[in-house]
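Input record (Table S2, row 147):
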Amino acid sequence: MSILVLNGPNLNLLGTREPGIYGSTTLAEIEAMCRALGAELGHDIAFVQSNHEGALVDALHAARTVHDGVIINAGAYTHTSVALRDAISATGLKAIELHLSNTHARESFRHVSLIAPVCVGVIQGFGPDSYLLALRAMAGILARAST
Ligand code: DQA
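Output record (DQA complex):
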């Protein structure tokens, strides 16, 4: 099966962006980790990043007929975007929200997620491992859905 890993704004700067919060692993290194785990789990991985809300909505629409599930780090749009929430809902894709940092241990405006209610679950606070945990969780969801 095929899993889309969708990344939102400013995640292209991982590695140099606020390393005290996000660590020093780059997005390219996270992509390589996801591809390696995807191969181990027997799933194809598509990895996309955009700083633009509409492009993320377009990626979700395109995923509808191509991918079986999406794991999404929507970055700051997590806390603001009704459009992303509606796109996840409209596509009917199984989605997992993830974050590198524990948003509940940060500023109060990060405590609210507009997309969590339309996701199967949320994984956050484990740095790059959040991606791997989310992929394993999605593999379980897809396995259960196909039996
Ligand atoms: C983030 C958390 C968000 O609050 C923030 O806006 C990001 C990164 C994370 O992965 O920890 O851009 O999604």
